[in-house]
Amino acid sequence: MARKPATIAIHSGLNQDTQFGCVVPPIYLSSTYNFTEYNQPRVHDYSRRGNPGRDMVQNALAELEGGAGAVVTSSGMSAIHLLCTTFLNPGDWIVAPHDCYGGSYRLFDSQSKRGAYNVIFVDQSDETALKAALAKAPKLVLIETPSNPLLRIVDIQHIAELAHQSGALVAVDNTFLSPVLQQPLSLGADFVIHSCTKYLNGHSDVVAGTVIAKDPQQAEELAWWANNIGVTGGAFDSYLLLRGIRTLAPRILLQQKNAQEIVNYLINQPLVKKLYYPALADHTGHEIAKRQQKGFGAMLSFELAGDETIIRRFLAALELFTLAESLGGVETLISHTATMTHAGMTPAARAKAGITDELLRISVGIEDSQDLIADLENAFRIVTQG
Fold first, then answer.
1. Average pLDDT for residues 63-76, to the nearest whole number?
2. Is 173 in the active site?
3. Is 101 known to be catalytic?
4. Which end of the chain offers a freer environment for a tag, N or C, measured as fewer CB atoms within 10 Å?
């Protein structure tokens, strides 16, 4: 019987200890494991290659996304780097979104300049531009939907079909929604990527990433390269990640509810020039989001009317919105995109992606929504009063 994500999240790794009967698995901190005899290693021989705790969380992630196998890495960026290292060679092309996460943009741009592979950044909602990029016969197409930070939505199934026709593999960064709200492998993707630092862990105390493969052979290739280049996640991080996953479903559903209430407030706020959230009927990707997602998530962005002085005063007036990078934790965060998460992009690249200097991104937490709205109301009042 196929289990739902909330059940998978709770039961992964439980009751597997045969020595003491621990319900919750212990932390396996040993770096090395003895051989039973000459040339007879156990299942694990060295923790860079394999760790019992990391095995458990990898199995959980693979099951949550409906994949054949997963590799947990030291960060979300190392997960993307692992995918590219495994499947791209010099001269190969990767097609990436023009508005992708700033760290991803920086990685692809810097690696292409070194000759590791070639990259083309394209607006994947533009059919003509996308087909022109696919005409280069790329080896890999990366999809990020909803995008960071403008929450743009693209059709995973449609792009995957086009990409496969051109001979490309397809990877989807599913960090913003998690497998509770979107499952890209079921829509035609070959790989799913997460920064596990975000919703999967959910408590802003772990840095980790994962690549999940649909094909068992490709999952084995990823595991081999992860060990080879040494990007696998540590034992304690794996333990904390598995613990965080257990509350993934209730956390993200409450965060989504709070986000919708904040959006309803911001719609009527005069200092909000433009609001980005896929649940809005006038959002360009609204219908696609309804079709391929199980919810609209807890990330939103808006452009604040005013100059840098106004933005500084607004951010300084907030008490419950922490000015910080990252997202997906139980606490609400706000970031200024141009100087924080996307500072690695040139001003020209940000402008092409539609990222203005007035853009603010919010990762909504699990606080009481009315307290969050009151905090926003106070900040807007301070800015308005001058």
1. 98
2. yes
3. yes
4. N
